[in-house]
Design a protein that fits this description.
alpha+beta; PSTPO5379-like fold; 7-stranded antiparallel β-sheet
């Protein structure tokens, strides 16, 4: 596995990933640029899924979708993007179950496929780091911990389920600052949905995340939880579509958009 230096561009990262040179989580890569979650569905499910995203903007902030079915490009997010092979790892779904994880889905792509790019909290991790906040999964060199919760999403057609959250441990002071910062990025999940006692949102053990890696929680720190773009994968379990594709948790699409393109003044 090759890793580019800190000056590498999003296009260079996508080319390396496309060529099979990088297959790990993308957290901390290409600082300052937007990363996206990915969902790919057949055309007959696309309108329902778009309704689900619009009804649940915290976990599913919709940034882009295929301009026409079968088009793997997302020109609004970057020149030359091809969602068939520009992510380090994909999940292949059949009837609500993951049947494989792949480095490319080019051989499975159909003319009726519609891709959706959703905002990702990795996009404000860079801003947190610049503010002097320790982003634990970045400093520990692992994937962000993600958990299923008891927070129910709004139903849209076949799509329903509970929210997934990502967690970052922080001191109370840093948590306040992180809330202030992330509020300015509503298209990257915005402010946290919960902080403190995880059992209040249905999480019983922080040491065993449902996705990603466990990180250390130091004395005096509290867990801070953001809505997560893995939520559609819970929804796909329930929808049981004949076929679908997503990113593997933590393995995102790196775009040409900067974090400042998403920054909103409250």
């Amino acid at each position: 596995m090759t890793k580019l230096d800190s000056n590498a561009t999003p296009r260079q990262w996508r080319r390396l990933i496309r060529e099979g040179g990088y297959d790990a989580p993308t957290s901390g890569l290409c600082g300052g640029f937007l990363q996206c979650n990915l969902v790919i569905l057949p055309r007959d499910a696309a309108d329902e899924f778009e309704d689900f995203c619009l009804s649940n903007p915290k976990p599913c902030p919709l940034l882009a979708k295929s301009t026409t079915p079968g088009d793997p490009s997302l020109p609004s997010l970057g020149e030359g993007i091809d969602v068939r092979f520009d992510l380090p790892r994909y999940r292949h779904w059949q009837a609500g179950k993951v049947v494989d994880e792949l480095a490319s889905i080019e051989h499975l792509w159909k003319d009726n496929d519609v891709a959706f790019a959703l905002g990702c909290s990795f996009s404000f991790d860079h801003a947190l780091g610049k503010a002097g906040i320790d982003v634990r999964h970045v400093s520990e060199g692992c994937n962000v911990p993600m958990y299923r919760t008891s927070i129910t999403c709004e139903k849209a057609g076949r799509f329903w389920g509970d929210m997934v959250v990502s967690m970052r441990p922080m001191t109370s002071k840093d948590a306040i600052r992180a809330i202030e910062i992330s509020t300015h990025y509503p298209e990257a999940h915005g402010a946290p949905v919960h902080l403190g006692d995880p059992t209040l949102i249905g999480i019983n053990d922080l040491k065993t995340p449902d996705f990603g890696s466990a990180v250390s929680l130091k004395t005096g720190e509290i867990p801070v939880f953001w809505a997560c773009g893995v939520t559609p994968q819970i929804v796909l379990e329930n929808a049981q579509l004949p076929i679908a594709f997503t990113h593997a948790p933590g393995h995102m699409l790196i775009t040409d958009k900067t974090h400042e393109d998403l920054y909103e003044i409250s």
